[in-house]
Amino acid sequence: MVRFLARWIALLGFMASFSSPLLAGPEVVVYSTRGESLIKPIFDLYTEQTGVKVVYLTGEAGPLIARLQSEGARTPADMLITVDAGNLWQAADKGLLRPVKSRVLEAVVPDQYQDEDNRWFGLSLRARTMVYSTERVKPAELSTYEALAEPRWKGRLCLRTSKKVYNQSLVAMLLEHNGADKTEQMLKGWVANLAAPVFANDTALIEAIAAGQCDVGIVNTYYLGRLQQQNPTLPVALFWANQSTTGVHVNLSGAGITTHAKSPKAAQALLEWLAKRSAQEAFAGINMEYPVNSATRWDPVVKAWGEFKADKLNLSIAGQRQQEAIMLMDRAGYP
Ligand code: FE
């Protein structure tokens, strides 16, 4: 209820900001599924540097994309920021994002992390890899996501729900690499190995490993980073998956300019600024993610995890094969 009220108050403030004559002047309107705590400091910095105000509304990806769709040409939004390439792909597929021609973005954002038609660009990268109990597992026992289906992990594996887009994207990419039959077999193996019911979030999963409920799991690294900051002796470490095969599954948080943007030029200026080194350090660092701009320094916690080989496939596949991935997870009984 508190959350519901907070949302309405935020929404009222958001709507008021359109009608207030005091707030006239250059501005960009952003819909963001990246939370306020992650974007506000970045937008404040932008306003400080450029004088351009950024008005934003945050929410969950599904409702925000649906809202953009129902608003159609009347939408106030110039830009959409979401986490997970699967969400950006959905928005582009629904015709909600426009192609952006930008030498800056082409130079900075690697091809695999942007839409072929330039309707969205990655801004920060998030690795989804394995974590394990340092008390009960030796890293030499680990190798690939696929190998977590082996019987030796029976009663030792923890997974987050298949309803989360992070896992849908991971499975979609593995499906592209391995084909439907092998992927279904892998998923059945994972399910057979579960030590506990699937988790609602990555943090609870990592805590379950620390508490001895299971030995190994799959999470986004920044969740481990947050817990490591709170507790440096946490008996959980991360392992870079698939280093001798396809590479770690890397997803992204990114943005596109809406089809019906009222200020597309101002939105593009903001998008290009977000990809620059100065903004990248803050944008990625604030959540212990990886900057998409390779000239940017990594957060110290992130740096301590070391370098890794990432999957080279274009992340559009996460969107394209999402429905198949969901169907396979369903068929394998992965809740
Ligand atoms: Fe997350």
- The residue fraction in helices comes out at 40-55%
Tell me the number of strands: 10
Amount of beta strand: 15-25%
CATH-defined topology of the largest domain: D-Maltodextrin-Binding Protein, domain 2
Number of domains: 2
| H-E order | HEHEHEHEHEEHHHEHEEHHEHHH
Describe this structure in words.
- With 335 residues, the chain is of the alpha/beta class.
- It folds into two domains: 22-125 and 252-297, 3-Layer(aba) Sandwich (D-Maltodextrin-Binding Protein, domain 2), CATH 3.40.190; 126-249 and 315-331, D-Maltodextrin-Binding Protein, domain 2, CATH 3.40.190.10.
- The protein is built from 14 helices and ten strands.
- It has helices at residues 2-19, 36-50, 61-71, 85-93, 103-108, 165-178, 180-193, 202-210, 221-230, 264-275, 277-285, 300-304, 316-320, 322-331; strands at residues 27-32, 53-58, 79-83, 97-98, 121-133, 157-158, 216-220, 236-239, 249-258, 290-291.
- Helix 6 (165-178) crosses helix 7 and helix 6 packs across helix 14.
- The radius of gyration is 20 Å and the shape is globular.
Structure keywords:
single chain, 335 residues, alpha/beta, D-Maltodextrin-Binding Protein, domain 2, 2 domains, ten-stranded mixed β-sheet, binds fe (iii) ion
What's the topology here?
Elements: H1 2-19, E1 27-32, H2 36-50, E2 53-58, H3 61-71, E3 79-83, H4 85-93, E4 97-98, H5 103-108, E5 121-133, E6 157-158, H6 165-178, H7 180-193, H8 202-210, E7 216-220, H9 221-230, E8 236-239, E9 249-258, H10 264-275, H11 277-285, E10 290-291, H12 300-304, H13 316-320, H14 322-331
Parallel strand pairs: 1-2, 1-3, 6-7
Antiparallel strand pairs: 3-9, 4-9, 5-7, 5-8, 5-9, 5-10
Helix pairs in contact: 6-7, 6-14
Bound molecules: fe (iii) ion.
